[in-house]
Amino acid sequence: MASSRGLSIRIISAEEPFMKADFGETQVLIRLMVDYANMAAKERALLNRIEIATSEEERFLLEELSSRKQYVATLLSIRTVGVKGEPYSYCVPLSYDQTQPNWNDLDRVCYIFGKPVRESVTNVKATYLTSNILSTLREADFIWQIKYYGIRVAIRS
C-alpha cells in the first residue's frame, strides 16, 4: 500500500499576536511534553495537567518519542484554523537537532525545517496571500515530493 504522507500546507491568518492568559503556562507544558521521558522522572507541578489531558497510551508514546529524539517545540503567538475555517488555538511547530527527523514520528504536526527554534517567537509579520506566495508554497510542495518520494510528481493546483 502506498504511503499517504506528504507536505500539507496550511495557510494561517495572523494579523496580530494571539496570546491569551495561558500563553506562558502552555509554553511550559509543550516543553515538558517534548522532554517527557526526562520530566516524568522528576516532580513537576504541571505534569498532572499532561496526565489529566492524555491517555496512558498517549503518555507511553510521549515517553517513547521523547527518549529517542530531541525535538524542540515552539509556541507561536498565532491562532490556527481548521480546513473549514473553524478557529483553534495556538500553533506548536516542532524542530529537530538533526538534519533528518523520523517522518514516521511526525504525523499531522507542524514542522520547522532548518535549525531548531529554541527561543520564543512572539512577533507576527502580516503576510498576504498573493500569487507569488502561492507560487512559493507550490514550489515547497514540489521540493517535498521529490525529497520524500525520490521521484518527480505532478503538482496539484
UniProtKB/TrEMBL annotation:
Entry superkingdom: Eukaryota
Gene3D superfamilies: 3.30.300.10
Protein name in UniProt: GMP synthase
Organism encoding this protein: Daphnia magna
